[in-house]
Structure formats: structure tokens, C-alpha cells
Amino acid sequence: MSRVDALPRRVPSPADVVRLVEAPPDTPLGRRGRAILEVLYGTGIRRGECLRLDVADVTISVLVVRDGKKRRDRRVPLLGRAASALRASVSAPGPSWPAAPKRRSSSRATGDV
Fold it and tell me: How far apart, in whole angstroms, are the C-alpha atoms of residue 4 and residue 83?
């Protein structure tokens, strides 16, 4: 498969993106969801990188993505709406920023039956 074949058939319009980002309700969980969407869209980081983010990885205008592609750390600019949404989510009471889910061992992986 060539790279051209792997491209999405439909790219969301700017209006579609705005509707998606503004969809979460104004609740603690909704603010966290909006922050996640803003960070993903505004920085271009990968979903797994977003899940591994820690509040300590965020500075005023830089996001440190740990264990990214090829297990390398990288610095990503954090600006505008993504920075504002992330700050609002982290500083507000309610659900914390998502952490990577803990892997559960399966019976197949441990050899148990």
C-alpha cells in the first residue's frame, strides 16, 4: 500500500473541528475532554503520547512528550487554545489529566489457564 492510499478520504472542515472541540459540556469531565481534544488537535501529538502526559511535562509554552515514536522524548509547542484549555482543566477541581491505563496481564501472557 502506498502512502497516498493510507491518507484519509475525508478531512474535517474547520467548522467540523470547532463543533467537535466545543461539544463537551461545561463540567469538570467535559473540560478535561475539551482539553484533550484541544491538545491533540493543537499540538499534533499521538493518542498514546497524550495518554502518557503528566502535568509535570507541561511548562508555560512547551509540552514534553515522553516515550514518543521510537521511545524518544520530544518537545512540542503548546500555544493558544490548547494551552488555555489544558491550564483550565488542570487547575479546576474534578477528574485529573488522563494517565496511561495500567496493563492487565492476561492468562495467555502469564501462561495461566
Answer: 32
Q: What's the 3-state SS for 38-103?
A: HHHHHHCCCHHHHHCCCHHHECCCEEEECCCHHHCCEEEECCHHHHHHHHHHHHCCCCCCCCCCCC
Contact residues for 10 (Cβ-Cβ < 8 A; gap 6+)? none
pTM over 0.90: no
What domains sit in the chain, N to C, each tagged with a CATH number? 11-93 (1.10.443.10)
pLDDT in tens, 23-66: 999 888 888 888 889 888 888 888 888 888 877 777 768 777 77
What is the C-alpha separation between 35 and 30, in angstroms, rounded?
Answer: 9
